[in-house]
Amino acid sequence: MQVYKAPLNDMKFLFKDFLYDGGFDIIFQNSDFEFSDLDLILDQAARFCEEELLPINQTGDGEGCSYERGQVITPTGFKEAYGKYVSNGWQSATLDKRYGGSGLPYVLGVFLDEMMSSSNMSFGNFPGLTTNAFAAIEKSASEELKDLYLPKLATGEWSGTMNLTEPQCGTDLGLTRTMALPQDDDSYRITGTKIFITGGEHDLSENIIHLVLAKTPGAPKGIKGISLFLVPKIIP
């Protein structure tokens, strides 16, 4: 029998006594966080991880994903757990309120991620990549793309991925061969092979937004020639 109890006392001590009262107030700026809500947020997150995610952790390892008629099917219980995860607001917890997030401090999200990863790492990979994709789009995309994609990523209706690895390169991204050819309508046609993409296909969300590393014609050699392209599974 698997057992997981979130280290709530340690987390609350770190948050209250070390961070909040220890001179690290800068990490709480630009946030509407109410300190009185801390216990409730962490307690609810722990309960979700212990009662919803832990019971399907072994299923994720033993059953795994399956491929049926062109569709990747996640392990038993994952889709239901994901529905509860997004409906309870965990996907949007630390995301910008301008796009539907709750605007909680990022450091609080680290505690939430620890609980999720400890109770069910297989499940945690899916929403974790969505958070990273959200951050990349928010940082670098046009306002048009932000307005179109970020609200759906914040709610978890859409999920995100990061497409880096290719057959000939993993961490050495300077060896990237995937090409992006400009088209007449200002879009790009992506040609190449990506492998081992976490959350690259699944049945949890309505759409999957892939962020793909590729090079354009004439780009410099090495990592300086890499660009990032937004490639939705379904064009909205």
From TrEMBL:
<dbReference type="InterPro" id="IPR046373">
    <property type="entry name" value="Acyl-CoA_Oxase/DH_mid-dom_sf"/>
</dbReference>
<dbReference type="InterPro" id="IPR037069">
    <property type="entry name" value="AcylCoA_DH/ox_N_sf"/>
</dbReference>
<dbReference type="GO" id="GO:0050660">
    <property type="term" value="F:flavin adenine dinucleotide binding"/>
</dbReference>
<dbReference type="GO" id="GO:0016627">
    <property type="term" value="F:oxidoreductase activity, acting on the CH-CH group of donors"/>
</dbReference>
<dbReference type="InterPro" id="IPR006091">
    <property type="entry name" value="Acyl-CoA_Oxase/DH_mid-dom"/>
</dbReference>
<feature type="domain" description="Acyl-CoA dehydrogenase/oxidase N-terminal">
    <location>
        <begin position="39"/>
        <end position="157"/>
    </location>
</feature>
<feature type="domain" description="Acyl-CoA oxidase/dehydrogenase middle">
    <location>
        <begin position="162"/>
        <end position="233"/>
    </location>
</feature>
<dbReference type="InterPro" id="IPR013786">
    <property type="entry name" value="AcylCoA_DH/ox_N"/>
</dbReference>
<dbReference type="Pfam" id="PF02771">
    <property type="entry name" value="Acyl-CoA_dh_N"/>
</dbReference>
<dbReference type="InterPro" id="IPR052166">
    <property type="entry name" value="Diverse_Acyl-CoA_DH"/>
</dbReference>
<dbReference type="Pfam" id="PF02770">
    <property type="entry name" value="Acyl-CoA_dh_M"/>
</dbReference>
<protein>
    <recommendedName>
        <fullName>Acyl-CoA dehydrogenase</fullName>
    </recommendedName>
</protein>
<dbReference type="InterPro" id="IPR009100">
    <property type="entry name" value="AcylCoA_DH/oxidase_NM_dom_sf"/>
</dbReference>
